Amino acid sequence: MDIRGRNATLNIVMSIAINNLKGTVAAFALLVMYSTTGIAQQADLRDEAELLRQLAEASPEQAAGLDRQLQSLWSQSGSASADLLLERGREALDEGNVESALDHLTALTDHAPDFAEGWHVRASVFFGLERFGMAAADLERALALNPNNYEAIYGLGLIFEVLGQPEQAYDAYSRALAIHPHHEEVTNAVNRLKPQIAGKAL
Description:
mainly alpha
């Protein structure tokens, strides 16, 4: 399959950051909803290990809320200035202003090099610019800081796939799916590559 021919491919990783814009508000609303309806056990928004545990065992409906809670948690740097740079970078992405997004996110990684989400979101900008080596380097940095970020693992898989390395891409997708079993895009990617991987194994 010609990956470059798929209209969605170059936008998928960038959409990760854009889709996170509503994460903070949605996370709190979903937590209240789940605790009152009994859909899922209530988890402390700051307890990453518990959120990940629940995500691995969740139904598709439960997973959506847990995903939002994790994205909200991972977007909190603990620094008001870093949070502002992240917000401005995402807003610029949402507006299609890639150069401005890159400026804000580079300032963020300079200011807060231990904040994994800064590297992750900047990787989406590099991916959109087809600067895949720089995107991969940022994703590796993000994963060194937060190895459970299934979105960053997924992004790394996309880069491998674009570069014609389906085995490495499949391994990355499988790793992301092990953390978030109901991730729709990752599931689609695994299903897309499975025939290629199976064929080579034969």
